[in-house]
Write a structure and sequence with these properties.
Layout lengths: L7 H14 L3 E2 L13 H4 L1 E8 L8 E10 L4 E10 L5 E10 L6 E6 L5 H4 L6 E8 L4 E10 L2 E10 L6 H13 L20
Antiparallel strand pairs: 1-9, 2-3, 2-9, 3-4, 4-5, 5-6, 6-7, 7-8, 8-9
GO molecular function, one term: pigment binding
Protein name: Lipocalin/cytosolic fatty-acid binding domain-containing protein
InterPro entries: Calycin, Invtbrt_color, Lipocalin_ApoD, Lipocln_cytosolic_FA-bd_dom
Length: about 200
């Protein structure tokens, strides 16, 4: 029996669910090398989202920025600011990214909340993140991955210190992702047309 859709909205929801559940690969999450001598102090500061893979939680937002403060405890105080594409209002989410004992470029991010930790770890955005590459001054590549039995799904973000990156740097980033087995064709440009002065 063929599937029929009575409205464009139901078709859209179906496509989003299929894309969200689509695996990035088979097996467990790949392991990527850590950045040698990663510096929390140099990584801290203001970052702009330049590109990312599809992420359901960012469907209705744009103008995403990160503000990272090194608290000198092996942690970064994180402020994520986005602009709602529906209301035009700024949204702010805060949390703490704690460096792993394995390597400072691997973080466990916890969202600031009054919920108990057993529930807070399931909040959107909470989990492990790895900085795959950065030169601290121009760009950073952030990666997260989740295992689902025989498949895994991963997310990639490219951040920059400025609102744009040049074609040469973008090509260098794409080449780096290729060496990690990550297809740059999966990346999408965020809709940053109506960003406010805060962006």
């Amino acid at each position: 029996m063929a599937l029929t859709y009575k409205s464009p909205i139901s078709l859209g929801i179906f496509l989003v669910l299929v894309h969200t559940c689509a695996p990035s690969g088979f097996g467990k999450c790949p392991r990527h090398d850590y950045i040698q001598n990663f510096s929390l102090e140099r990584f801290a500061g203001h970052w702009y989202e330049i590109e990312r893979t599809f992420y359901l939680m960012e469907l209705t937002v744009s103008c995403t920025t990160l503000d990272l403060i090194d608290n000198n405890k092996g942690q970064l105080e994180v402020t994520v600011t986005t602009l709602s594409r529906w209301s035009g209002n700024l949204r702010v989410s805060e949390g703490i990214a704690s460096s792993s004992r394995k390597d400072p470029s691997l973080f466990l991010y916890r969202v600031n909340t009054i919920l108990p930790q057993t529930l807070a770890k399931y909040l959107p955005g909470a989990g492990f993140y790895q900085v795959l590459d950065t030169d601290y001054d121009r760009f950073a590549i952030l990666w997260s991955c989740s295992n689902f039995g025989v498949i895994y799904t991963d997310l990639v973000w490219i951040f920059a210190r400025g609102k744009e990156i040049d074609a040469q740097l973008r090509a260098k980033i794409y080449e780096f992702l290729k060496t990690k087995g990550i297809d740059s064709e999966r990346l999408v440009l965020p809709k940053n047309n109506n960003c406010t002065d805060e962006y």
